[in-house]
Amino acid sequence: MTPADGRQTALFSVWGAEQAIQFETSWWTWGDVGRVHASLRTALADRSVPDNVPIGIVMRQRPALKASDLVGLTPAVVIAHTIDWGRPGFSDAVHASGALGLEIADDFQMRAGADGDSASA
């Protein structure tokens, strides 16, 4: 665990019930963010992903994402919501990039991207 992880874990603990991120009409608390953090750390450790690799996160509050948006980027890991993994060409673009694809669902758990066959899993 890095010093930053320790500070983040403390933040999640102290502010656990406080609202942190809003998407449409729903709020994620700091506790929710902490569960995502823990799930991500576990998913990366289970796949022996080093701490210092670039990670691309597909944000939900943004214009429609196209698979071509991944061209030219070189993340080692791409994290996206279930909805994004269902977009035409998205899974293929992630896999073609050689990145490990991780899907985050509404239960805050990380899973292998869409087809269950992440590039590095």
Oligomer: single chain
The number of helical runs is: 4
Q: Biggest sheet, in brief?
A: 4 strands, mixed
Helix content: 25-40%
Q: What do these coordinates show?
A:
- There is one protein chain.
- The chain has about 120 residues and is an alpha/beta fold.
- Helix content is about 35%, strand content about 20%.
- It contains 4 helices and 6 strands, in the order αββαββααββ.
- Strand 1 (about 20-25) and strand 2 form a beta hairpin.
- Helix 1 (about 5-15) runs antiparallel to helix 2 (about 30-45).
- The longest helix has 17 residues, at about 30-45.
- The radius of gyration is 15 Å and the shape is globular.
- The protein starts with a helix and ends in a 9-residue tail after the last strand.
Brief sketch in words of this structure:
The protein is of the alpha/beta class.
